[in-house]
Design brief:
heterodimer, A: Glutaredoxin, eight-stranded mixed β-sheet, 5 helices, 10 strands, B: alpha+beta, Immunoglobulin-like, ten-stranded mixed β-sheet
């Protein structure tokens, strides 16, 4: 398993730079409170369409700490609650929050057009970005993080219900996976861990 | 029998009759009623705390509102890292207890607003119980990123 995600050259450079500077904060693991997934998940990679209708890739978010969340706009309860919590977390980070982005990836691309997503994510936080794309591109991203979703037909007017992974995947400014948060985790822990990433992260 | 005792007896009788015929809705007190408004024509969620002052369990069977084409009673759950939403037929409010419809649990899903609902609006919702009785409740519309009724 380890050889699947070898240490990236950028990270190596960072390690060397840290050693040269005589500092040791980069060589020591950060004292995360949430589930540390450093080195246990693939780096952030995707090509999707953002809520402005522009094609974007993970590279466009390098330099930002990324909070990745899978959901859909016709989810009136859990998705908004998660995004509302993330909004509070961003507010608690103050100015530091500008160094972070919430990426809301729709697992319902048929209904979630860029326009629908734009109105949706902006109702929660100015640092939230809605991402949609082809069903296969979304599926690839979902699989990459071992997340999942299912579609279940519902009664009534052709509507359907979607179940989806509830986790929030946090990546550092270099796109490396660092922690995994679940809705059950406390806001304090997420704020704490984001502080670690935003304080010590490499400037863009 | 003195007229006075007669009156008392009559009053007691009326009270008793009232007790027997009281509907479920008469025993339910609703509070913290709010709606999370989402942009566009997206479905919204409504939340409320229901207290049952009676000796018997009361079942909430659903709701309706003139402001929405459809209202459904739903339950969200998270298990094994997955979140899902399911439709439920009813929700029990235990005797002398309460049922809380709150984010990430039971909620009313409001679909197809007849006209745009904005934060700050008051929306009348008719809560329905299995005995057929109804309770008109005012819900306050809150922004998408609200965490509670704001009161």
């Amino acid at each position: 398993m380890k050889s699947r995600y070898p240490l990236r050259p950028a990270l190596l450079l960072l390690l060397v730079a840290g050693l040269l500077l005589g500092g040791c904060q980069h060589t020591q693991p950060l004292p995360f409170r949430l589930t540390n997934v450093t080195g246990h998940m693939p780096t952030l990679a995707f090509t999707l369409t953002d809520d402005q209708g522009k094609t974007v890739s993970a590279a466009d978010y390098r330099g930002k700490v990324v909070l990745l969340y899978f959901g859909y706009t016709h989810c009136p309860d859990v998705c908004p609650l998660t995004l509302a919590h993330l909004h509070v977390v961003m507010q608690r980070l103050g100015k530091l929050a500008d160094g972070a982005r919430i990426l809301f990836v729709s697992v319902d691309p048929a209904r979630d057009t860029p326009a629908v997503l734009h109105a949706y994510v902006n109702a929660f936080d100015p640092r939230a970005v809605g991402l949609t794309g082809s069903a296969s591109d979304i599926e690839a991203l979902v699989k990459r993080y071992r997340a999942s979703f299912t579609r279940e037909p519902s009664t009534g007017d052709g509507n359907y219900e979607v179940s989806h992974s509830s986790a929030i995947y946090v990546f550092d400014r270099d796109g490396n996976p660092r922690v995994l948060a679940t809705p059950a985790d406390s806001q304090d822990d997420l704020v704490h861990d984001l502080h670690l990433l935003l304080d010590t992260g490499v400037a863009p | 029998m003195k007229p006075r005792s007669m009156t008392l007896l009559l009053a007691a009788g009326l009270l008793l009759a009232g007790g027997v015929h009281a509907t479920a809705a008469e025993h339910v007190h609703a509070s913290h009623a709010w709606i999370r408004v989402l942009p566009g024509n997206l479905p919204a969620s409504a939340y409320v705390t229901l207290e049952n002052g009676s000796d018997r369990a009361i079942l909430l069977s659903g709701a309706s509102s003139a402001a929405y084409a459809e209202v459904m009673l739903h339950h969200s759950s998270t298990a094994g890292g997955m979140s899902r939403m399911t439709m439920v037929d009813s929700l029990e409010i235990p005797a002398h207890g309460k049922a809380v419809l709150a984010p990430a649990g039971y909620h009313l899903m409001l679909m197809q607003a007849r006209k745009p609902v904005k934060p700050g609006d008051t929306i009348a919702v008719l809560l329905k119980f299995t005995d057929g009785s109804t309770l008109a409740t005012d819900f306050i519309a809150r922004p998408a990123n609200a965490l509670n009724d704001g009161l």
